[in-house]
Design brief:
The structure holds 2 protein chains of 2 kinds.
Chain A: E1 3-14, H1 53-65, E2 73-74, E3 77-80, E4 90-93, E5 103-108, E6 114-126, E7 130-132, E8 141-143, E9 150-156, H2 163-179, E10 192-202, E11 212-217, H3 220-239, E12 248-252, E13 257-260, E14 273-274, E15 281-282, H4 285-294, H5 299-310, H6 314-322, H7 324-337, H8 340-358, H9 369-380, H10 386-399, H11 406-413, H12 422-435, H13 437-445, H14 448-465, H15 472-482
Parallel strand pairs in A: 11-12
Antiparallel strand pairs in A: 1-9, 1-10, 2-15, 3-4, 3-14, 5-6, 6-9, 7-8, 10-11, 12-13
Chain B: H1 6-15, H2 20-34, E1 41-44, H3 47-62, E2 73-77, H4 104-111, E3 115-120, H5 154-161, E4 167-171, H6 178-184, E5 187-190, E6 211-215, H7 218-228, E7 258-262, H8 272-287, E8 291-295, H9 303-318, H10 337-348, H11 351-364, H12 370-390, E9 396-400, H13 416-420, H14 427-432, E10 436-444, E11 447-455, H15 460-473
Parallel strand pairs in B: 2-3, 7-8, 7-9
Antiparallel strand pairs in B: 1-3, 4-6, 5-6, 5-10, 9-11, 10-11
Helix pairs in contact in B: 2-3, 5-6, 7-15, 9-11, 9-12
Classes of the chains: A alpha+beta, B alpha/beta.
Chain lengths: 483, 487
Amino acid sequence: MSWETVIGLEVHVQLATQSKIFSGASTQFGAEPNTQACAIDLAMPGTLPVFNEAALRMAVMFGLAVDAEIGMESVFDRKNYFYPDLPKGYQISQMDYPIVGRGSVEIALADRTTKTIGITRAHLEEDAGKSLHEDFHGFSGIDLNRAGTPLLEIVSEPEIRSAEEAVAYLKYLHALVRYLDISDGDMSQGSMRCDVNISLRQTGASEFGTRTEIKNVNSFRFVEKAIEVEVERQRDILEDGGIIVQETRLYDADKNETRPMRSKEVANDYRYFPEPDLLPIRIDEAYLTAIRDQLPELPKEKLQRFIEQYALGDYDARLLAAERETAAYFEQVVADCGDAKASANWVIGELSARLNREDLEIANSRVSAAQLARLLQRLADQTLSSKTAKTLFDVLWENGGQDVELVDQLIDEHGFKQVSDSGAIEAMVDTVIADNPQQVENYRSAPPEKRKKMLGFFVGQVMKASQGKANPGQVNQLLNEKL
Amino acid sequence: MHNLSVSAISRALAAGDFSSVEITQYLLDRIREEDTAYNSFISLAGDSALEQAAEADLRRSKQSDVPALCGVPFAHKDIFCTENLRTTCGSRMLENFVPPYSATMVEQMRAAGMVLLGKTNMDEFAMGASNETSYFGAVRNPWDTACVPGGSSGGSAAAVAARLVPGASGTDTGGSIRQPASLCGVSGLKPTYGRVSRYGMIAFASSLDQAGPMARSAEDLARLLELMAGFDPKDSTSIDAPVPDYAASLNDSIAGIRLGVPKEYFADGLHAGTAACVEEAIKTFESLGAKVSEVSLQHSRLAVPVYYVVAPAEASTNLSRYDGVRYGYRCADPKDLHDMYTRSRSEGFGEEVKRRILVGTYALSAGYYDAYYRKAQKVRRLIKQDFVENFANVDAIIGPTNPSPTFPLGEKTDDPVAMYMEDIYTIPANLAGLPALSVPAGLVDGKPVGVQLIGNYLEEARLLNLAHQFQLATDWHQLNPLTGGEQ
């Protein structure tokens, strides 16, 4: 029997406002517990929320960036439940009238295809505090610094069909909020958190199966693994003729399994109703226009521009435009060296591989864009060969300095300069021909169409003898003449 | 000295007849001696009141243009947060709660130099119409200490009536200023919803709660409201409109003003004595030139049921914050979190509060929301619409404040629905968000009853003008319970 996986994601993004969504307290991460919680965050009697307009602006930016309908009148609601880190006993959220309505994003997949994922809605709400269960004997501690931090909860349509698509979607959102500068998207600090809804159905079926929700999966890798193990778990149950229980589960990364949350942790009836302490948010076309006019270039727009301006292929352009920092790095390299194709190849190839290997963000690259551009210039003017260029890149990386002049210094220090002295190259060519009589014999007796391939052996030997510094063009030319 | 009104004290301070310290000390002493009979105060400010009074005297001696009420003593209902002064909301839950901030309205009055004498008793979390639900004991009516003062601002009403303070703040969610004003023979105004900031006023039902003044004359209400009202950026529901000089229009002629008498307000359930007083008051207005006509508030019969869905629904979630975690009452030795929640709330809240939390929780529950909360909101709009339509033809609506004079303590405590009917004439103005006031209109068997005036949005000045003209023509507001109803 074959099964289709159906996934919907609920992504919580902390918005990068200076102060909280309903109070003036700071939102900075990492302060001493309860030093960033004012009377409103503590839900002291008589205190009232006042909506922070900066959060509205950011939510609208997101909505416009995913081509969504914007709620011209959106309403806050109270979501009621008791928990010690929820000071008011309710969370101010949005239910029936969210700020962002239906929209969509286009994600790129490894097989070089793209897919559109619908966004159902995105709404504003406040974050809760944190319960601290360690270091207190017989008690739990409560830290309310995070209470009241603005969140945008982005709900996808159940249109995701695999762990790969889920991660691609999540990465797209991550890149987008950073493009818009509305969140740092830092999953390790909880700035971006993800709940995954998963169900299976027989391929071709139109009804959805019963779903489970995996709460708070907080890295791309865990999202991938959590989906894989949950899909496997559900498939095993279904294939044994069992039924899936609709429930909330937790992903345990250490055991690589999902398990049900204790029923106490699951609230049933939130008794939503309109928040009487806040007026509906009304916005007009002028407000939307002003925000639209100030939106930065979005990934999809950048993608189009890269294709047109730099004559890049769709796939390369997509890779370069995906993250704002990558795009900026790439564009600086192009601006400095003038060769878009080479810049693209190096950023996607050598640089990305190195960043991946060392698990670094491009912002923390040990080779600066200006340095890479200089390196590419030296490659273009034939100071470097492609081999010495790669070695130089590694040396630059290890060196770690950001100074662009370092590129030429290191070329000198390490003697990376390509040998274009025809006398020296000719001597090496002669030596190689003399040392390999059998190969020379074979070459000369071979038909011309095979010779091209066989020439590579001699080029390789000469390059080896020159420690990679010989100008490959000259080597080729001399070998052709002498053979 | 205790018979002096807010306005009279203001004039005396300006004339140098006595100092703020003198009257403050006098009233503090008086409260300590006399209030054992009424239990109208929960906390006294004591030394801090004398410090404020001394400050006011200094200000008067140095400044030429001090605010008119600088140095005048005042009391706040114990629902308003007062920095460094215990604020209980009449509940065991907040028995030891000392706020680190003051309500905006409290700050405004303080900035004008008014002296805070203390905090008045009230029904627990403002839930009640007799002041019998207070954790700090029932308040007694100065006209008959065997009877209730009304509620929930019963402490403020009783203290003003008993001449312990010249004026006090109250809050009115379904009649909690007007009904006790009526039962205690004082004047009380519930302004337009949003006219006075709710910041720092402990929430009962957020969409209905409104603070206002209680005093012994409409003139005093006008002077007090001017200090209380105003836009507050800390309260998103407060109205951003200028505050008029309410006293300036008190003496305008009311000739030609159109008063509507809602026929539904004179149906079954209205005490004959109360009805007679209100009818007499209407005649007085006619004699002053007002044009009286009958109007209909056809949906007002639904006001009580609508109110007892909306208010408890909002209250049930407003009171969720009292969980024993951060402040307020926490039960002894909780064995786990659930036990802490359950016992802290069971022990910290009184019966009426728990009843309303349960009713409200039920009304918001999945499966019942549409039948109760949503439907109540729809009817609420119809009730508001009735007023909007009538205000096209009349300038104010006049009728009884509540169905009958005061009743003995304990008479209605076992019958919540009978108690709820106390607010049948006051609730519609809360549901519509309209300003309304109650002024004394006579005595029934030696007990005061009030007449209610309901105005259009932000037309507090018109209501105060009408009430002041009425008080120039009558002396009901000057009757003194301490002298057996003489002036």
